[in-house]
Amino acid sequence: MDKLKAFFFLSRPVNLLLSTLTVFITASFIVPFPSWFRIVPALITVVFLNAGGNGVNDLYDEAIDRINRPNRPLPAGKLTRKDVRAFSVVMFFFGNLAALFAGFFPFLIAAVLSTPLMIIYSMRLKKTPLSGNLIIALILGLAFIFCSLVYGNVTTGIVPAILAFFYTLIREIIKDLEDMRGDLAGGARTLPILTGEKNTRLVIVFLLLMLILILPFPVIFSSYSMMYLWLVLPFVGLPLLGILIYLLLPGENFRYGLLSQILKIDMFAGLAAIYAGIHF
């Protein structure tokens, strides 16, 4: 029972909940709502690949997690490396098998793009400046493209994929700022370690500004209604602007963990705005 509980936490259930929401949120954008024969394979693929990727990540982050996150199952000694490796293999196998049932092009995204990128990220790219952050952002964006392909309308996934890409990229860099101490001890060469904390904050400010500027694009260049704009500007644009201003303030001891959580919550406001822009 203790080992099952450890496997459950290894999968990072909060992340899997977000993956589940991604599948259903993308389905909610489609008219008419997709059948369960399409939703179930998409759900299994996204959730299982996410869990497998989390396992691989913990394998290669064991030394760093002993400092940054010592309560995770592997550094805490609740699971062995063999346990985690077997878990990841099983998750990847059944995730890609479900993708095969979802269709040829969804299978290509899952098996040829997402799965290798997850493994390469953990093995090589996570400890390198910016490239690892870009890979994770790309994988999250691909989840929306994957689901919209399964549901038969790939164009519906483009706007949420772009939104997810920027949000994830910004959050990943902020998390690197939060984890500087452990990353430095583990020999990682993340953006904050390479360029310094202040310069990294300026990179985040630039990305936030880009995201704020492209928020109106779905109305200007697509068929989204004005309802999208009425929701996205106050509930997405203003929090992003607040974070931007906060990062430009002088001082030390910035609350990077809090900023990361705000961005995670605020992304759902963006998805709600997309829903409203499509349906109303």
Radius of gyration: 19 Å
CATH topology: Tetracycline Repressor, domain 2
Taken in chain order, the helices and strands follow as HHHHHHHHHHHHHH
Number of helices: 14
Strand content: under 5%
What is the CATH superfamily label? Answer: UbiA prenyltransferase
Task: Kindly report the average pLDDT value.
Answer: 88
**What's the shape?**
globular
Task: Work out the helicity level.
Answer: over 70%
**Count of the domains:** 1
The first-to-last residue Cα distance is 48 Å
Count the beta strands.
0
Show the helix and strand layout.
Elements: H1 2-10, H2 13-29, H3 36-60, H4 62-68, H5 81-102, H6 104-125, H7 131-150, H8 158-178, H9 180-185, H10 191-195, H11 197-214, H12 217-221, H13 226-248, H14 256-279
Helix pairs in contact: 2-3, 2-7, 3-5, 3-6, 3-7, 5-6, 6-7, 7-8, 8-11, 8-14, 11-13, 13-14
Question: What this model shows, in words?
Answer:
The chain is an all-alpha fold and 280 residues long. The chain has one domain: Tetracycline Repressor, domain 2. Helices cover 80% and strands 0% of the residues. It contains 14 helices and no strands. The longest helix is centred in the N-terminal third of the chain and has 25 residues. The chain is globular. The N and C termini lie far apart (48 Å).
